[in-house]
Specification:
Layout (H helix, E strand, L loop, with lengths): L5 E4 L9 H16 L3 E4 L13 H12 L22 H13 L3 E4 L3 H13 L15 H9 L5 E4 L6 E6 L3 E6 L7 E3 L7 H11 L4 E5 L6 H11 L5 E5 L2 E2 L17 H6 L4 H9 L14 H7 L10 E2 L2 H14 L2 H14 L9 H13 L10 H4 L12 H8 L3 H14 L5 H15 L4 H12 L7 H8 L1 H14 L1
Parallel strand pairs: 1-2, 8-9, 10-11
Antiparallel strand pairs: 3-4, 4-7, 5-6
Helix pairs in contact: 1-10, 6-7, 9-11, 12-13, 15-18, 16-17, 16-18, 16-20, 17-19, 18-19
The structure holds glutamic acid.
């Protein structure tokens, strides 16, 4: 019998979809699709203080934008619902009760202050702080006495002493933990809501999750979870902990790290292409068999296996991200690029909200002219600056070009040609340049470079004829004029 592959992405609704979360979602998605299994989206909202109202919708929006569609979830339903922890409290309660009855969990009445005192004392003795087990064996009478004081208990899991805990991990190999390093941990808080470590085990079991693929930051939770699986008599799923994502300084990426754009929504807002982001994220801790790094989601799906998830930290290389996005941008349908970039020109005040057909067309052509250079839509603002300026700056290398002796002659001849044009098309500009070449005898760089520098201020740029057409006759002539008068 072939095993049914069921995996899940289980975000807590605490904010936007982070790159790390997106990677977990993507790995699970690719794994499910590779094996023809199911991809479940579950919302883990038991940490209510951290929940943010609109986070679930936002997470779903970002996943949808990336193209990671799920098979079962809060919105779609499915055979193992509900798919939100807070809708599953009755279910959790049954298992809490079972563990209590079996003596595998117990009520603990210690206050925060008492716990802190205990930890202080342990630290003073040079021990690693850990729950002492004080309330493990309370009598009914002692419990009643605490309750009479107004105390409300939490439920703690009774961690067996001296046990080796094996975490079967497909990325790291089997990882072994010592149960003595784990204190009796809380599985249900005073308000009756279970903790993450408990809920996740119940949910993964009842939802028949076969593989738990998530980030390395959860590896330290896993022995606690394995203990719960064992105590409840559940089969332990296969784990795969993908490595940490580091920044360029090889430090663990913190949410405050400004060197990296960290949230999927930000990439969308900046006009990135989702398939490029997917490709980039897939390579954060996973590597394909061959050399080729540019891969469609179908190719990723086909090639994705857990044995290629890498056991060493992934470095978030912003330059590679830009490069990869640019590769996709170049290949994208120009109209799509226009749609991504246009709002940025508007937001920058370069284009009015309400545009005439002519303005719209002009802006579309302008964007298409820069498609080759763009990594994301937002870059259009910087790339096209010289189209919106009254005056342009000539940097040092541009100044050098303008010093060449043929320049005044070339520019004057070109200007005279332009003034005679009835229409203003790339063919007209091409013909004008040809004529200047014939008239002055200057060709190649000696001809084109002064013209490019005169009208754009730069030695490099996109197609010259198109640039001139889009700059418009008035601007081009004014820029040349200004140079001729300075000379
Ligand atoms: N709710 C957890 C998180 O957002 C998921 C952990 C897991 O995948 O088990 O980090």
């Amino acid at each position: 019998m072939t095993e049914t592959i069921r995996v899940r992405f289980a975000p807590s609704p605490t904010g936007h979809l982070h790159i790390g979360g997106a990677r977990s979602a993507l790995f699970n998605y690719l794994f499910a699709r590779h094996h023809g299994g199911s991809f479940v989206l579950r919302i883990e909202d038991t940490d209510q203080a951290r929940n943010v109202d609109t986070a679930t919708e936002k997470l779903m929006d970002s996943l949808t934008w990336l193209g990671l569609d799920w098979d079962e979830s809060v919105d779609k339903g499915g055979p193992y619902g509900p798919y939100k922890s807070m809708d599953r409290l009755d279910t959790y309660q049954q298992y809490i009760d079972r563990l209590l009855q079996e003596g595998k969990a117990f009520h603990c009445y210690m206050t925060q202050e008492e716990l802190e005192e205990e930890r202080e004392a342990q630290r003073a003795r040079g021990e690693t702080p850990q729950y002492s087990g004080r309330d493990r064996n309370l009598t009914e009478e002692e419990k009643r006495a605490y309750e009479a004081e107004g105390r409300r208990p939490v439920v703690r899991f009774l961690v067996p002493k001296g046990q080796e805990i094996h975490v079967p991990d497909q990325v790291r190999g089997d990882v072994t933990f010592d149960s003595d390093g784990i204190g009796d941990f809380v599985i249900q808080r005073q308000d009756g809501i279970p903790t993450y470590n408990f809920a996740v085990v119940i949910d993964d079991h009842l939802m028949q999750i076969s593989h738990v693929i998530r980030g390395e930051e959860h590896l330290s939770n896993t022995p606690n979870q394995v203990l719960l699986y064992e105590a409840l008599g559940f089969d332990v799923p296969v784990f795969a902990h993908a490595s940490l994502i580091l920044n360029a300084d090889k430090q663990k990426m913190s949410k405050r790290d400004e060197s990296i754009i960290q949230f999927v929504e930000q990439y969308r807002d900046l006009g990135y292409l989702p398939e490029a982001i997917v490709n980039f994220i897939a390579l954060l801790g996973w590597s394909p068999g061959g050399e080729e790094e540019l891969m469609t989601v179908e190719e990723l799906q086909e090639q994705f296996t857990l044995d290629r998830v890498i056991n060493s930290p992934a470095v978030f290389d912003t330059q590679k991200l830009e490069w990869m996005n640019n590769q996709y941008m170049k290949e994208a349908d120009p109209d799509r690029v226009v749609a991504l970039a246009m709002p940025h020109l508007v937001r920058a005040g370069r284009l009015p909200e309400a545009r005439s057909e002519e303005q719209e067309e002009w802006a579309a052509d302008l964007i298409k002219l820069h498609q080759e250079k763009m990594s994301c839509g937002a870059e259009i603002v910087e790339l096209t600056e010289l189209f919106f300026r009254e005056k342009i700056d000539y940097n040092e290398e541009a100044q050098e070009v303008l010093q060449e002796e043929q320049v005044p002659e070339v520019l004057a001849a070109f200007k005279a040609e332009l003034e005679q044009l009835d229409t203003w098309t790339t063919d007209d500009i091409k013909a004008s340049l040809k004529t200047v070449q014939k008239e002055t005898g200057h060709k190649g760089k000696k001809l084109f470079m002064p013209v490019r520098v005169a009208v754009t201020g730069q030695k490099h740029g996109p197609d010259l004829q198109k640039t001139i057409v889009l700059l418009g006759r008035e601007t081009v002539i004014a820029r040349i004029d200004q140079l001729l008068h300075q000379a």
